[in-house]
Amino acid sequence: MADQPKYSKLVNDANEIGKNLQIGDNVKFASFNNQKLSLIIGNNVRIEDNVRIIGGGTVILSNNVTLHNNVSILGSRSCFIGPNTWIAQYTLLDCEGDLEIGQDCCIGYNCQIWSHVCRVPCLKNIRFHGRKKTIIKDRVWLQGGLITINPGVTVGEDCVIFSQSVVNHDTLPKKVYGGIPAKRIKKFDSPYIDE
User: Fold this and answer.
1) Distance between CA atoms of 50 and 37, rounded to whole angstroms?
2) In this structure, what are the phi and psi dihedrals at residue 5, rounded to the nearest 5 degrees?
3) Is residue 28 part of a domain?
4) What domain range includes position 146?
5) Is residue 9 classed as helix, strand or coil in its secondary structure?
6) Can you give the pTM of this predicted structure?
7) Residue 82: inside a domain, yes or no?
8) Angle at Cα 67 formed by Cα 61 and Cα 68, nearest 5°?
9) At 76, which CATH number?
10) What HEC string does the chain produce?
11) pLDDT 10s per residue in the chain (195 long)?
């Protein structure tokens, strides 16, 4: 991890940088399609090697957020990541249709969270084209291993999503989902131990 001079070019009128930012090697911050990328980075944020943040909106990394190696945040709209959230290696966060991730979330290895779908060039009369805000509520655990969250989905608070799942609909809070498409797994109706 680097010291202050390595990321001093981030300090400008469009960006707010908190204390104790740790940033790895080969991290890329860039504008998307000549739009202006605005960064708001809280305190104690860790951005590891080969992370790419390429956008045209505002990207907010709240206090104590960790972006592990090779995470990509891409898109022309806003991305908000809440405090104490951990994003594992090789995860893709698409903010083309806005993305909001709550606090205390754990997004496992190699997940994809989408907020838009399109084909370039666009086919005439295609139904699968558009942008929709995707929301991951507080304390969600995406276990990792090829999980896809589709555009416009809201994942409820305290949900657990099993590996290799495709979530194409909103989920209820405090429930466990898995499969393609993801379905509620009732035998794990609450992932939490009753006290």
Assistant:
1) 18
2) -60, -30
3) yes
4) 16-179
5) helix
6) 0.88
7) yes
8) 175
9) 2.160.10.10
10) CCCHHHHHHHCCCCCEECCCCEECCCCEEEECCCCCCEEEECCCCEECCCCEEEECCEEEECCCCEECCCCEEEECCCEEECCCCEECCCCEEECCCCEEECCCCEECCCCEECCEECCCCCCCCCCCCEECCEEECCCCEECCCCCEECCCCEECCCCEECCCCEECCCCCCCCEEECCCCEECHHHCCCCCCC
11) 444 445 555 655 568 899 999 999 999 998 877 888 899 999 999 999 999 999 889 999 999 999 999 999 999 899 999 999 999 999 999 999 999 999 999 999 999 999 987 656 666 665 556 788 999 999 999 998 899 999 999 999 999 999 999 999 999 999 999 999 999 998 777 655 665
Task: Report residue 49 as tokens.
Answer: 């090697």
Q: How many domains does the chain have?
A: 1
Task: Give the Cβ contact number of residue 189 at 10 Å.
Answer: 11
